[in-house]
Amino acid sequence: MRRIVLTGVPPFEVQDLAGPLEVFSQCDYEVELVSTERDGAAGINRGLRVTGGTHFRSFDEPIDTLWVVGGPEAPSGAHDPAYLRWLKEQAGRARRVGASCLGTFVLAAAGVLDGRRAVTHWQWCDHLAARHPRIELVRESIYVKDGHVYTSAGITTGIDLALLFVEEDFGPRKALAIAQWLVLFVRRTSSSAQLSKLLTLHASAIKPFDDLENWIFEHLAEEIGVERMAASVNMSARQFTRVFRHEKGTTPARFVERVRVEVARSLLEASGASVKAVAAKCGFGSADSMRRSFLRVLGATPSEIAGGVRVAVGAATAPLASPPAR
User: Fold this and answer.
1) What is the pLDDT of residues 106-165, one digit of tens each?
2) Residue 80: inside a domain, yes or no?
């Protein structure tokens, strides 16, 4: 049985611990907590504590996967030197090393990321680059693999990275089954942007359009015209087009196209479905039509996306308002 060790500098971020733990609990893994606290417990930044772990000085078992959990104190750099030495030694021995969100800072402090590509939460990228200039920072991806070391961008991206580990160990069907069990909207891959176009578009919504966006997702395979969208929010087509463009900064047709492209991109990257099947599922009408939309929106063809070609993320993906600092 593969042993996964969850460790890091407490207090942990709740989701950084719970998300990957929930994924790993669905598989034939032996999951253990290794803490910097002598009683083996670990604090969580919401005032809770997790018990049943082992102090790092007392832990002497082989590790298959070493996972560093993120937390608000991780960027401080004020870490026990003995723990950092232990972490670097274990990272060199483990088959695979992962870090969720700000856990990247702990790996960096231990010297594990020197000369490697890595990512962290977008709000902390500049800080990581300034503190650890020997890291090649990849700002746009939700997770990055360099050799046997993987880093992820933010709270929920730890789930995406954990699903990747499951896929590597047990195959894509098992990873997809867990994603469905967790009721994830879509399973994201490494080339997915931290700052999603869909979230950016959604952030500008006014209340009448909230249900409309859900309706678009539910009817993506169908023909979606202005008249049909306008009727769903009880507006005339003319009024709807004017209000929509004012609120979204784009036309209804371009909005639907971008949604279709983003969903199709996720399906191509995560499911291995054919271009033709994805085109039909996402309402493009034909593979050629989907190809034109991909080139217009992403600057790459569906075949290139399915083959793993990285697509740069432009400034248009920036959110309208920054979330609170972590």
Assistant:
1) 999 999 999 999 999 988 999 999 999 999 999 878 889 999 999 999 778 899 899 999
2) yes
Structure token digits, residue 36: 């910097």
Does 101 qualify as catalytic in the annotation?
yes
pLDDT band of 201, cuts 50, 70, 90? very low
Q: Name the residue range of residue 173's domain.
A: 2-181
* Pair (244, 175) in one structural domain: no
Helices (H), the chain: 14-24, 81-93, 103-109, 125-131, 157-170, 172-181, 197-203, 207-218, 226-232, 237-248, 252-271, 275-281, 287-297, 302-306
Q: Which of 27, 101, 125, 282 is catalytic?
A: 101
Task: Please tell me what DSSP assigns to residue 324.
Answer: P
Based on DSSP, count helices (H) and strands (E) in the chain, helices before strands: 14, 11
Amino acid identity, position 10: P
* Same domain (yes/no): 205, 177: no
CATH of the domain at 202: 1.10.10.60
Instruction: Tell me the pTM.
Output: 0.65
54-73 pLDDT per residue, tens: 999 999 999 999 999 999 99
Q: Report in angstroms the alpha-carbon separations of 219 from 46, 82, 132, 281, 292.
A: 39, 56, 46, 10, 21
Percent of the chain surpassing pLDDT 70: 86
